[in-house]
């Protein structure tokens, strides 16, 4: 059941079944394959991240968003060529419209890419995070969350490979060297604070997969054949969705699905934490050779004229960031957007 006793609208999978013996493993992989192909979204329990870690992350996020505006703006994303830090309500763009959410982004803590005159632009995306010194517990909680979700994501990628009847490590060369990861902590204000309902506009995620932690406030919606499906919060569960890298690699057998968030009603806000797991920026996404039975069911990757996908990961990610954060693009990437 979802919140308030409502029935689930997405499949619910238990990752612990992957290690519960051959029969349970086979059943889990069949359910994973069906969920990822038919819906592209599912709830995930049995992920092994303790409730205490979830609570600590949510408490530290609330502490950050409660800071005075001046303290948050001091670590605003426009100060980061790597698109890290705080974003004010309305300052990220999806499909040409402002998203009514404030958020804080981090990525892997790595040094700059080695300088060379022929470096592609995406090499500039590697670097340091910004941190608010007033809430040191936020930094600790986010870095621990990034590590824990990375491990869950790798387990899921191996499961996806097995579900497609591939070697379990078929995706490993794409992320073994510096996988691209991002944690986005998001607060959606209620509609008494903002005008409009676009918490975040309709879009697909571009990486391998996304793990989403929700609080108790609904708002996430998934596009289905007959309209929008509410993906209400389920205690202890992530919402997981397939990204476009898996759709490309599987020739559309796995499905990256359009989704959006509707702003909370007046008197409420909504806190969520999205973890995006992707390939290394220098990777090129291969096309897997599926067994004939599965290949016959592959639909080809969906084409979005407003947001075409590249097989080169760094180029694809750079395109996404430049479109979403025009203020950062103008400050740090004038040579690309001029």
What does this structure look like?
- This protein has 338 residues and is α+β, with helices and mostly antiparallel strands.
- The chain contains ten helices and 14 strands.
- The chain has helices spanning 22-38, 51-65, 69-73, 136-163, 172-175, 244-249, 292-295, 313-324, 326-332, 334-337; strands spanning 12-14, 41-45, 85-87, 93-94, 97-98, 102-106, 181-188, 198-203, 209-214, 220-224, 227-230, 238-242, 259-262, 270-277.
- The chain has an eight-stranded mixed β-sheet. A four-stranded antiparallel β-sheet has the order 8-13-10-11, with no helix packed on it. The chain has a two-stranded antiparallel sheet with strand order 4-5.
- β10 and β11 (227-230) form a beta hairpin.
- α1 crosses α4 (136-163) and α2 packs across α4 (136-163).
- The longest helix has 28 residues, at 136-163.
Q: What topology does this entry show?
A:
Elements: E1 12-14, H1 22-38, E2 41-45, H2 51-65, H3 69-73, E3 85-87, E4 93-94, E5 97-98, E6 102-106, H4 136-163, H5 172-175, E7 181-188, E8 198-203, E9 209-214, E10 220-224, E11 227-230, E12 238-242, H6 244-249, E13 259-262, E14 270-277, H7 292-295, H8 313-324, H9 326-332, H10 334-337
Parallel strand pairs: 1-2
Antiparallel strand pairs: 2-12, 3-6, 4-5, 6-7, 7-14, 8-13, 9-12, 9-14, 10-11, 10-13
Helix pairs in contact: 1-4, 2-4
Strand order of the largest sheet: 1-2-12-9-14-7-6-3
Strand content: 15-25%
Backbone shape: globular
| DSSP helical segment count | 10
Roughly how many Å apart are the termini?
Answer: 50 Å
Number of strands: 14
Structural class: alpha+beta
Any idea what the radius of gyration is?
19 Å
Percent range of helical residues: 25-40%
Indicate the low-confidence ranges by residue numbers: none
In round numbers, the mean pLDDT is: 93
Major sheet description: 8 strands, mixed
Order of helices and strands: EHEHHEEEEHHEEEEEEHEEHHHH
């Amino acid at each position: 059941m979802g919140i308030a006793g409502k029935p689930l609208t997405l499949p619910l999978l238990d990752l612990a079944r992957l290690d519960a013996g051959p029969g349970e493993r086979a059943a889990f992989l069949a359910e994973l394959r069906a969920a990822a192909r038919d819906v592209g979204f599912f709830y995930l329990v049995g992920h092994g991240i303790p409730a205490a870690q979830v609570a600590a992350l949510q408490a530290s996020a609330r502490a950050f968003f409660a800071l005075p505006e001046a303290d948050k703006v001091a670590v605003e994303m426009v100060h980061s060529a790597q698109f890290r830090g705080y974003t004010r309500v309305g300052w990220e763009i999806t499909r040409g419209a402002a998203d009514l959410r404030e958020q804080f982004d981090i990525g892997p803590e790595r040094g700059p890419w080695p300088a060379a005159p022929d470096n592609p632009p995406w090499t500039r995306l590697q670097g340091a995070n910004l941190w608010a010194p007033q809430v040191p517990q936020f930094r600790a909680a986010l870095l621990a969350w990034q590590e824990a979700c990375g491990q869950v994501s790798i387990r899921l990628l191996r499961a996806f490979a097995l579900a497609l009847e591939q070697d379990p490590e078929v995706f490993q060369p794409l992320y073994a060297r510096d996988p691209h990861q991002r944690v986005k902590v998001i607060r959606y204000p209620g509609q008494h604070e903002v005008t409009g309902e676009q918490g975040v506009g309709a879009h697909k995620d571009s990486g391998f997969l996304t793990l989403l932690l929700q609080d108790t406030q609904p708002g996430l919606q998934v596009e289905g054949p007959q309209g929008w499906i509410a993906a209400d919060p389920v205690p202890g569960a992530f919402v997981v969705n397939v990204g476009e890298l898996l759709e490309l690699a599987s020739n559309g057998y796995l499905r990256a699905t359009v989704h959006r968030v509707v702003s909370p009603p007046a008197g409420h806000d909504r806190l969520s934490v999205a973890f995006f797991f992707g390939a290394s920026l220098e990777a090129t996404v291969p096309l897997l050779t599926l067994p004939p039975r599965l290949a016959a069911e592959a639909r080809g990757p969906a084409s979005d004229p407003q947001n075409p996908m590249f097989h080169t990961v760094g180029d694809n990610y750079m395109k996404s960031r430049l479109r979403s954060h025009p203020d950062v693009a103008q400050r740090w990437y004038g040579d690309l957007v001029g």
